[in-house]
Amino acid sequence: MYKINDNYQKLPGSYLFSTIGKKVNAYSEANPDKQIIRLGIGDVTQPIAPAIIEAMHKAVDEMGKAETFHGYAPDLGYEFLRSAIVKNDYQARGCDIAMDEIFVSDGAKSDSGNIQEIFAQDNRIAVCDPVYPVYVDSNVMAGRTGTYNPKTEMWSDVIYMPCTMENGFVPEFPKETPDIIYLCLPNNPTGTTITKSQLQTWVDYANKVGAVIIYDAAYEAYISEDDVAHSIYECEGAKTCAIELKSFSKNAGFTGVRLGYTVVPKELKCGDVSLNAMWARRHGTKFNGAPYIVQRAGEAVYSEAGKAQLKEQVAYYMKNAKAIKEGLKEAGYTVFGGVNAPYIWLKTPEKMTSWEFFDYLLENANVVGTPGSGFGPSGEGYFRLTAFGSYENTLAALERIKKL
Amino acid sequence: MYKINDNYQKLPGSYLFSTIGKKVNAYSEANPDKQIIRLGIGDVTQPIAPAIIEAMHKAVDEMGKAETFHGYAPDLGYEFLRSAIVKNDYQARGCDIAMDEIFVSDGAKSDSGNIQEIFAQDNRIAVCDPVYPVYVDSNVMAGRTGTYNPKTEMWSDVIYMPCTMENGFVPEFPKETPDIIYLCLPNNPTGTTITKSQLQTWVDYANKVGAVIIYDAAYEAYISEDDVAHSIYECEGAKTCAIELKSFSKNAGFTGVRLGYTVVPKELKCGDVSLNAMWARRHGTKFNGAPYIVQRAGEAVYSEAGKAQLKEQVAYYMKNAKAIKEGLKEAGYTVFGGVNAPYIWLKTPEKMTSWEFFDYLLENANVVGTPGSGFGPSGEGYFRLTAFGSYENTLAALERIKKL
């Protein structure tokens, strides 16, 4: 008789955003007249930029003619896209990353979930708390997290690095030495970040203790301050300790287009074993490339027209972020983030729990946000709002919140 | 110090098609004047059908306008696609499969590689031999296959079910009882298949011994004979023992478009645990949906115009298959397959090994095929040619082979 992977049974409840979706649907069905404004899940609302639409139409046409049809893509992704990535995201910032260190994928969520596969089961992971749930859940599924304590909402074998008001949302080196450190900067969910020199201390720490950093740079396009690194490879020594994950979802609105990439430097080695070669093997065996049309869309992100249009799109969302931050402050809330990231992290009022505030906001303002506790125990008492709505909806949501 | 997943180190050589690609590139660079005809990797050559191109253009336009923009897709895939799948691929064949048993993905290769994750590590897998390499390699990566014997090219903990001339390429129930049985029918690489009543005996066997069948139906569209099942759910009792994987790569030429789906029936349970719920959790945690544009392309596969155009496309490739089969017979080769599948499986002449014949064909006819031994030890002495080239190239390749 076959047996299942028991680790799945350890997962408490369902994936955070599925739970939110179900709650909102239930409310919506019971109250069909209410106009719900969704500032919960980090999904974008602005349409794909014209330069990218044009590139996709062109690629669709190519797929319709035998002479220009494209079948299976090269394992790592098309060179036209990888060279645009290298040039714009790395060389332009003085980072020496080569084409064959870039692995194009169907998105950073898949990569975030899959990257742990190339590590041994008995590695100890460290995560910021609160944190994007996929890092922990994918390690639970792999049996790397020990047992779950429903009271503390913590896993026995996970090292948590609290990021709260008290430490300015800057993770501290943990007491126990981790093997794999997940860092998402600028941060989801808190919307905060750390300086380049603070990041350098993490790179030095990882190199010293022999840890690998999984660096999620999905929100890099929202950085507005000069002393914040856009890539971990801006830090000296990062190529011997860090893997970087990048998304096109937030900088170019590709949540429904699906594209991302992972950087695994060739200098990153565990003894003699190249992690670049391991990831290449994983990529070649269990994945078959992002669609040609989507890779052409990715290339257009780096065109002159694309860059100009996306700069405007990012500015649009950051105008929302500013409006939310200032509006909530006026309404008496304590708020964080929103300067280098499209997320606003607020303290729930009157000691409400995160889920109490979720229900309160849904029922009384018909606004959907994300409960901080869904991201980890140190997120309790906090709440996330995203700047990814339309400007009109964002202002409308704020008006409703101010009236509460 | 972090540690890697040592199972990766056990993998011999590189992924089969990467090796072929490298060999062909090397030959091509050394002989730039030679016109190489590729009948190796199972990649298609016909352009995407007009009805699908039209649907993609429409979807691209939708993505460019705020009112019709689509962000994150529903976890299981859009209902418009899942309902078309249910209606056309299942209800039309009398199979009672529900919408929430369909999981839309970026392709059957990803699903083939990932599906093993929901099973315990100590399950025993059984595969046909020869076999699509992903089934075995993904289990090697998960540590489920024991040790590799380079002499026999077999894994100590894998149950091999030889499919050769001698048994008419019909797998026999293994002596040892497997937990997970991979069946790809019509078969890649042999191009052969089994009858519906033979498949029924496998379903009965799996239910009896408590095994789960991973049924890869990627080549279903090429079935031309009446007594062959298009879905395993045509067999009685399959819903309690089988997961079905489907691809759009071969029936609609989506190798570069990327779309597939997996069926996990709700009746499929291990004790109390629903495998449908497990796969839903995996899908929701480590994947973020196929692109909206691609899901609309998938919907168009089932439109009246799409169906008519794809019927022609399949017929085009099957004309190639017939030409290869008859041409090779005329040239004195012993050939199999090509009736219900787009693959021709031939005995190598003069007791050449599969790789010897690969080199011989590449160097003397400039034709690329796939060495049978790359699919498993029982593939030694065989060779695969695909019908996915253009008709002109297929005929040209045959002329060259006949002249050898």
Task: Describe the structure in brief.
Chain A is α/β, with parallel strands linked by helices. In chain A, 37% of the residues lie in helices and 15% in strands.
Describe the overall structure.
The structure is a homodimer of 404-residue chains. With 404 residues, chain A is an alpha/beta fold. Chain A contains 12 helices and 17 strands. Chain A has helices at 7-10, 16-30, 50-63, 79-90, 108-114, 133-141, 196-209, 275-286, 292-301, 304-330, 354-365, 391-403; strands spanning 37-38, 102-105, 125-129, 148-149, 154-155, 159-162, 180-184, 212-216, 242-247, 260-263, 269-270, 273-274, 335-337, 343-347, 367-368, 370-371, 382-386. In chain A, strands 2-10-9-8-7-3-6 form a 7-stranded mixed beta sheet, with helices on both faces. In chain A, strands 13-14-17-16 form a 4-stranded antiparallel beta sheet. In chain A, helix 3 packs antiparallel against helix 9 (292-301). The longest helix of chain A is centred in the C-terminal third of the chain and has 27 residues, at 304-330. Chains A and B meet through helix 3, helix 5, helix 6, helix 8 and helix 9 of A and helix 3, helix 5, helix 6, helix 8 and helix 9 of B.
Kindly name the structural category of chain A: alpha/beta
The helix/strand series of chain A, from N terminus to C terminus, equals HHEHHEHEHEEEEHEEEEEHHHEEHEEEH
Proportion of beta-strand residues of chain A: 5-15%
How would you classify the quaternary structure? homodimer
State the shape of chain A. Answer: globular
Low-confidence stretches of chain A: none
